[in-house]
């Protein structure tokens, strides 16, 4: 039986990659004739990253999955130490993006380039972070973790309520956020 943890992490990574891709597409398109809608959906997507991956996904990886894998796989332990450092700085990085976006919105196009450069760095960083998790940590987990380990880790991840994961029941508290992103963001995350 596939692990709830592994399936959840992969689904959440796919959702996050779609949001990152949509942020890049939105940036490339720019605010056009609808700056209020543009900045609204950009803020919503950054809020999603701050609210969900930073506050739910990463803490569970760092608390439940990473320690067990590092304990059992010395080869993965070094990568896990780097991933934990990434997690420690993740909230500050997304908050900086939120601030730079607000600066662009309130201060005008003179602030666009700073946001664009920071967003591109963040996207590269985050895609690499997820790649390391999926190519080093998850395979090491599959090779080394025991059934009791999986039971505890799966129980922790079973409560995740990613508002953008397909086929998952959504937490009602996230419905407004989900609707705002899906209705205004470009494909692959939205209909806009």
From TrEMBL:
Name under which the protein is recorded: Hemerythrin domain-containing protein
Gene3D superfamilies: nmb1532 protein domain like (1.20.120.520)
Top-level taxon of the source organism: Bacteria
Hemerythrin-like domain sequence ranges: 7-141
